[in-house]
Design brief:
By secondary structure, the chain is an alpha/beta fold. It has two domains: about 140 residues, Rossmann fold; about 35 residues, no CATH class. Helix content is about 45%, strand content about 25%. Strands 1, 2, 3, 4, 5 and 6 form a six-stranded mixed sheet that branches. Helix 1 links the parallel strand 1 and strand 2.
């Protein structure tokens, strides 16, 4: 059993759900998995883990600070670990609109730039949908997101899971990624 740590940072909760689903799949593949919310529990040591997965929600092109702090803190330690990174983003909306340039930008800013900045060598990376929760956004961000995305969400078939909340996650995509991660981590 490969001892594994999944650390995530979330603003509205979607990255937590994604991290928990990845953990579920890894456990099914016989991994010993601990899941940690980076904001609630500060990771002090990763020496006992063979696999470390770090995930973050993206907002305005930025990782959640707690997840980025973890990358900074352990960047040297990651050299001797199997590392995977994932982000929760608006990728599904951009894809449905055919905005491949924006999807590429999400990948560059959300993953490639972090990999370069901290000199990381992940065995895999993932970009998943997140949750847009207009109820939890401050007024200015909510208005900007309504102008930029609300009609696109409705046009492309994204449904509210409750008033003002759109879940953009593709659970099959997340599960498939986690199974592939398990294979790569065991190699």
């Amino acid at each position: 059993m490969l001892k594994s740590l999944i650390v995530y940072a979330t603003r509205y909760g979607s990255t937590k759900g994604t991290a928990e689903e990845i953990a579920k799949i890894l456990r099914e593949e016989k991994f010993d998995v601990q899941v940690v919310n980076a904001k609630e529990e500060k990771v002090q040591d990763i020496s006992e883990y063979g696999l470390v997965v770090v995930g973050s929600g993206m907002a305005m092109g930025n990782w959640a600070s707690d997840a980025e702090d973890l990358l900074r803190k352990f960047q040297k330690d990651f050299e001797n670990k199997k590392l995977a990174l994932f982000i929760s983003s608006l990728k599904p909306v951009e894809e449905k609109q055919g905005k491949t340039d924006l999807v590429a930008r999400i990948r560059k800013i959300g993953l490639e730039d972090k990999i370069m900045k901290y000199n990381l060598k992940p065995i895999t990376t993932g970009i998943f949908g997140g949750v847009l929760d207009y109820n939890k956004m401050n007024f200015l961000i909510r208005k900007g997101m309504e102008v930029g995305y609300k009609s696109a969400l409705q046009k492309h078939g994204f449904k509210e899971v409750e008033p003002g909340v759109y879940d953009l996650r593709d659970w099959d995509e997340i599960r498939s990624w986690a199974k592939e991660l398990a294979k790569k981590a065991q190699d």
